[in-house]
Amino acid sequence: MQQQELIPHLFRTEYRKIVAVLCKRFGIAAIETAEDIASDTFLTAAQSWALGSIPPNPAAWLHSVAKNKAVNYLRRTQHFNQQIAPALQHDSQEATEADIDLSPQNIHDSQLQMMFAICHPAIPPEAQVGLSLRILCGFGIEEISDAFLTSKDTINKRLFRAKEKLRELQLPIALPGQTEIDKRLAAVLTTIYLLFNEGYYSVSQDTTLRRELCFEAMRLCNMLVESPATNRPPVNALLSLMCFHASRFDARIGENGELILYHEQDTSRWNADLISQGSYFLHCASTGRQLSTYHLEAAIAWWYTRKEDTQDKWEHILQLYNQLLQIAYTPVAALNRTYALSRANGKSAAIAEAEKLQLTNNHFYFALLGELYAGINNQLATQHLERALALAKTNADKQVLQKKLERLQG
User: Fold this and answer.
1) pLDDT tier at 209 (50, 70, 90 boundaries)?
2) 13-41 mean pLDDT
3) Position 403 pLDDT exceeds 60
4) What is the model's pLDDT at position 208?
5) 259 - beta bridge partners?
């Protein structure tokens, strides 16, 4: 791998590790110092490797340089403290040689602990996702602003306020007690879920599916599964859900980046390994009595990985949506339920239910009505599809709707 490719790749995989470990060592108040040291480490790498050769183990090289920079920071900080408060002097040898533990176990633990600090209930949800992307996933400010369809200035302000709140709370970078884990786990899972959804359906104009966001969400969730303190049924259910969705990535996007709808996908391109993993985690989620929204969504996603197109399949999906809406009603789930209803009980029944929703600002709503009315009232179907086309925000959605209109009119 060439240097111009290696540095960005390592930034994505190693930046988050360095920041998490340094934040844990320095404390949450020094979160920006940890980021600065990590960024400076990569700047040093870019300059050094451009002049010489790339080291045999680039990741280990980065960790060594980051550790040296961190120790230098501790020495400067200690020297400053000794100057302003001589009475508080400590043994300098002990302080300056403080261990910066970049072992695999401490890296894993630090990231898991940082996840729970970031997802403190005092931090707004959008800031939790933004901080997770920055600190736990190594995303740049521009990438985060693209993900949220907002300016870099807005993202910087949002992250700054969140960091200020973390400093104000003086949260330790440590896994909280079991009671506090139970309180924060829902927020952690919501953050991971939102992160995955942002990748699964991107509203940016140039891409429909951002796999890197989805796989980062799966990586974070897998960390929760691997830890005995956080390996709970809803965590397994969420990981199962993401595995099932990820299994259809290759079939969901065409050669030119166009979106391919479910019933038009080439099922031979579905990833059998991910479906198998999803089934395993769904089985792990079946312990205990808790039934979360992730359980129901994962069960729905499992049925979507069944290649047969039978009424029994859609009847099961419909009943699962009924349960989901009873637990947590959302317009999106209601709309998806209507599609399942059309496949299980026919278009007429689905039209009656769909028109009750009145999601007049949602292009998916009009796209579904257009599909339901096709063959029943093509004039109405055309009107709904044209309305959906006017509301659609992405080029991929517009392409799909335009093709539907052409088929209908053709």
Assistant:
1) low
2) 92
3) yes
4) 59
5) 253
Distance (Å, whole) CA 129 – CA 347: 38
How are the residues of the chain apportioned to helix, strand and coil, as percentages rounded to the nearest 5? 75, 0, 25
* Amino acid present at 25: R
Give CA separation, 403 vs 88, 122, 252, 347, in Å: 74, 46, 16, 21
CB atoms within 10 A of CB 196: 23
Give the pLDDT confidence score for residue 84 in this predicted structure: 55
The one-letter amino acid at 320: L
pLDDT > 60? residue 90: no
DSSP readout, 16-59? HHHHHHHHHHH-GGGHHHHHHHHHHHHHHHHHHHHHSPPPSSHH
Number of Cβ atoms within 10 Å of the Cβ of 25: 20
Considering only CA atoms, which of 304, 385, 48 is closest in space to residue 377? 385
Query: How many whole angstroms separate alpha carbon 326 and alpha carbon 307?
Result: 28
